[in-house]
Design goal:
about 300 residues, alpha/beta, 2 domains, four-stranded mixed sheet, 15 helices, Peptidase, DUF2268
Amino acid sequence: MTITVLETYRAMRDILRAPAPERPGLLRAMLEPAAGMYRYFPGEVDLVAMHRAGSGFPLDRDEARCREALEVLHEADAWGRIERALGDAIAVQLAATPGITVPDLTVLIVLGDPGDAHFMGPALGMTANGSVSGYLFLNFWPYPENLARLEATAVHELNHNLRYAPGGVEWNPATVTVGEQIVSEGLADAFARQLYGDELGYARMGVPLLHDDAVFAKVVSGLGVTGMENFAAWVHGDATAVRYGGTPVGLPTGAGYAAGNRLVDAYLAATGRTAAQALLVSSREVIDTALTRIP
C-alpha cells in the first residue's frame, strides 16, 4: 500500500502565475493523475469542467486572492500533515480490522473558489470526496477552522474509501439508500473523532444540528430513499441540493451529518465498539440498533 499525495502546490502556483490562455492545459495536466476518481462516470470526463463544478479555484479571476490563500495552505504544511495523518489512520484501522483491503491511495489537494458563494458560505470553504476506492479529493479554502481540521478531514474521507474498498461494503448506485450515506458520514466522523477528538473530528456543517430532534426525525423519515440524485438534500441539505439541481426536502445544511453522528454514536454505545472496529458494519444494523436507543 502506498500513499501518493500529489504535489499540487507548485502546480497551482504555476497555474495562477501563467497567462490565462495557458491555465486550462496546465490544470488538466495537474488533475490527470487523479482522473481515475471519475472512472464510473459515463463517457470521457472533462477534468477542467469537473474542477469548476467542484468549486475548484478559478482560472479567470481572483488570482491575487488565490495566490495568497495557496501560500497559507502551504505554510500550514497541508500536504505533509495530510500524508502523515493518512498513514497514522491506516495503522489504527488495520489494528482494528486487520483483514481489510487498503488500496494504494492517490490524494488530490486543491484550493477552492473564493467567488463561489455556496462553497464559501454553506459549505464552509471545504468539499471532499473519498467514495471512489484509491482516490481522495480534498478542496479547501484556508479558513482557520479548516486549517485546524486538515487531518480530521482527510481521515474522514479515508474512512469512506476503506468502507467501500474491494471486499468491503458494496456501493451499488441502483440500490444504495440515503440510510447508507447517512451512516457512512456518521462512521467517518466517529473515526475522525476517535483520532482527533470531538472539537476537531466533527464535520463542521453538522455541528449546529447535533441536538435538533426535529431535524433528526426528518432525516430518519428518508433513510429508505434511493436514487443518488436525491442524496444531496437528505445528507447535505436543501441549499446544496438546489445548487446541484436537486429537489429540496425541507432540511437545513448539514442535517444528514448530524443525524449520522447520532445514529452511529448510539450504535457504538450499545455495542461497545470503536469507530474503527465498526468500519464495515452494515447500515441496517447501525440504524436498527440505534433507533431502539434514541427516543
